[in-house]
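Entry type: protein chain
Record version: 2
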Amino acid sequence: MVDVVDERRTSRVAAPVAVSSLRPLSSHSLSNDSWAARFQELPKAELHVHLEGTMEPATVVALAKRHGDTLDESTVAARYATRDFGAFIEAYKWVTSYLREPADYSLAVCRMGEQMLTQNVVYAEVTLSVGVMLLRKQDVQANFSAIREASAPHESRGLRLQWIFDAVRQFGADAAHEVAQWAVKLRNAGVVAFGMGGDELARPSGEFRHVYEYAAANSLHRVVHAGEIGGADSVRDAVEILGAERIGHGIAAASDAKLMAMLAERSIGLEMCPTSNLRTGALARYLGRAGASFTDHPLPNLFRAGIPVSVSTDDPAMFETSLASEFNTLSAMGLTYQEITRIGEGGFVGAFLPAPEKSALLQSFRAKAAALTLL
């Protein structure tokens, strides 16, 4: 997804194990229904999901009512039914306009948390469009305090949440730097990274080098949306100029063998969102065609090239998807069930967590996957 708006126990545990060191894939097979049922039982991680894009039609209707507008769920669903990038941008701008005060963000987080718990998500890094908050003259501190308070009940039920503060590329470097400053200010309250979405073609990465250097110097992780509608050079610049540790989307990397080798060598993760790539037209654009299907997605080639890959929903309500649905698309791409399970593990491998916490989550995932004969 892009952010585009006119006005964003502590016990001893083993060290993390690299994905490549796991035992070879077994040759057992499962029916689709059997695999899906078992996979639902696995703990899951999601690394690329925008809070604003998790708002189901019923949530939007409730927010609109708060602000004096009358909507019905069918109207919201119709606005969400996009099939190209421009229409998606307009839908995103419209729906985020109902997030106006802390209580609105609180409602969105409450409902997002319930969605995640239903899917057995135990860890998520959620992107917040702080660049949009600032453009609309909102109180970032108040909004984030409401978000953290609303997330507490879900965290007590086993959902660990961390937050990525996101800037909008086309708003420019000064606006991005203000977002980074807020991320630094609130990093001890759960902000783990600084990111940048928006139109990756609007401004060159070089304009934001100093912003990413500031984020790195202040112990924030760095992510960038790149290679979604842009080409392989956009991904390369995100890594070499901005020092990105993970790339949002990155489908265009599949067109450049040297770039794929670099991503694999440096363990730069790709946060893949297949349904999003179809619904925004990004995959068709990458292919140079009028349309595309899941069978056309380059995810298998990227994963089999040794690049760390995770799967996420991006904007699940807007794209009528779920994390379980996203993993189901991988079978259509020709990936084996064991490979899909490895990709599920990739969400934990790529998490911005201290080593002991990551190791604990990985061991829990592997133990459950082994018990379900999914590895």
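Comment: The domain at 29-371 is CATH 3.20.20.140 (TIM Barrel).
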